[in-house]
């Protein structure tokens, strides 16, 4: 006869199942984004200059990295 598992064991296993489902979901989301990016229009040419804009997340990361060092 099989022994019934305790509630703690069920919760422990459920935690890994939920984490696994989240990881698979993120992977599928990234896969669909990359497949959609494959269809973006392209053109031949040179990029003479480019600029990036700093976001609030970049600014927060810079502040935190300065505090650590």
Q: What's the overall average pLDDT, rounded?
A: 82
Beta-strand fraction estimate: under 5%
The count of helical stretches stands at 2
Structural class label: mainly alpha
Largest sheet: none
The tally of strands reads 0
Amount of helix: 55-70%
Shape call: flat
N-to-C CA distance: 59 Å
Low-confidence stretches: none
Order of helices and strands: HH
Radius of gyration: 23 Å
3D structure, described in words:
64% of the residues lie in helices and 0% in strands. It is mainly α and 69 residues long. The protein has a domain at 7-39. It is flat, with a radius of gyration of 23 Å.
Summarize the structure.
This protein has 69 residues and is mostly helical.
What's the helix and strand layout?
Elements: H1 7-37, H2 56-68
Task: Please describe the structure with a list of short key phrases separated by commas or semicolons.
69 residues
